[in-house]
Amino acid sequence: MNSWLSLKNRLDERMDQTTAPLGLLLLRLWLAQEFIQAGWIKLSGGLSAPDWFRELSFPMPVSWLSADLNWITAGVLETGLGLLLLAGLFGRLAALGLLFVTWVAVYSVHFDLGWVGWNQIETDDGQGFKVPLMIALMLFALLAKGMGAWSADAWLAKRGRAPG
């Protein structure tokens, strides 16, 4: 029994060494491309918010900004923080910022169905927040675990120049 437990522990340790960096890298790459694309769409569309965006209700303190400034700010944050996530540079700060952006999106766009929309994407009655919830959970995992061994944060930490 003890030898099986020992073997299991050795396998777990080996898997952690080989798959953990890859898993965190893939998570970062997926989330980064999602946010960079969303941000780029906003920024490449001009400095004026579209009509559908102007009609949204935003939470405080975001509600203090005009619709156009909200549109630009969302685009800059999604693109900029997405690029930081891609590189794994200041990754926890980027994940935290993107969690805020995601919360604003849920509050303003994806909460049509209320709390029952937690497992809905889009229905005839409105938008649910299943996809933003999944994105938030992925961002939280990066916030909790860091960017992994294959990141700029790890590279800088090895040289004694940890970002932050």
Automatic annotation (TrEMBL):
It comes from Fluviicoccus keumensis. PANTHER family: DOXX FAMILY PROTEIN (PTHR33452:SF7), OXIDOREDUCTASE CATD-RELATED (PTHR33452). GO terms for cellular component: plasma membrane. This is Putative oxidoreductase. It is a multi-pass membrane protein. Its main location: membrane. The keyword Mitochondrion does not apply. It comes from the Bacteria.
